[in-house]
Amino acid sequence: MVGMSKHTPLAAVFEPEFIAGMKDIFEQRIVFNQMLGLKIVTLQPDRVVARIDMKPELVGHFAYNRVHGGVISAGLDATGALAVMAAIGAKHMDEPPAQRLARFHKLGTIDLRVDYLRPGIGTHFELHAQVLRLGSRVASTRMEFVGPEGQLMSAGSAAYIVS
Fold first, then answer.
1. Cα(88)–Cα(55) distance, integer angstroms
2. What are the boundaries of each domain within the chain?
3. Nearest to 48 by CA among 5, 100, 84
4. At the topology level of CATH, where does 16-161 sit?
5. Taking the alpha carbons of 79, 84, 90, 94 in that order, is the dihedral positive or negative?
């Protein structure tokens, strides 16, 4: 995956307070993410990784052992947004963590594309995302939905409004 623009401070290290705040927003306050069981695994300025563990509510009607395409799409969208949040947080490291966390209330998906490459079969999945470009109004991301053995199952791209 391609990294962020040269203007994003990739060397930034997030404070424990910022990471805890991001986990609270992503895993607890966004009820849909909570229902999906999305958990943050890696939170870095230039890449994020989330995880979904399979549970019966996430599978399709006719194929019990497959995760539903809507779950894949929603997970990729949420992880792309998480990557944008991390990039915004890194861009404003001069601000206190609480002030950076308050910047995310205007974030919204403009466009989302998902390519389903393989059936979503497995016990757990990782979702990887990177920001390709963080502009003053729009951010572009690239995401991957990866199976338990590391195989790419779906790929996505999205644009988010950030102003």
1. 32
2. 16-161
3. 84
4. Thiol Ester Dehydrase; Chain A (3.10.129)
5. negative
How many residues appear in the chain? 163
Q: Distance between CA 2 and CA 130 in Å, rounded?
A: 8
Estimate to the nearest angstrom the gap between the alpha carbon of 147 and the chain centroid.
Answer: 16
Q: What is the pTM of this model?
A: 0.88
* Bridge partners (DSSP) listed for residue 125: 52
Q: CA 2, CA 148: separation in Å to the nearest integer?
A: 23
The C-alpha atoms of residue 77 and residue 60 are separated, in whole angstroms, by 19
DSSP the chain: -----TTS-TT----HHHHHHHHIIIIIISHHHHHHT-EEEEEETTEEEEEEE--GGGB-SS-TTBB-HHHHHHHHHHHHHHHHHHHHHHHTTTS-HHHHHGGGGG-EEEEEEEEE-S--BSSEEEEEEEEEEE-SSEEEEEEEEE-TTS-EEEEEEEEEE--
Q: What is the mean pLDDT of the chain?
A: 89
Residue type, 29: R
Cα–Cα dist 153/150, whole Å: 9
- Chain segment 66-90, per-residue pLDDT in tens: 788 999 999 999 999 999 999 999 9
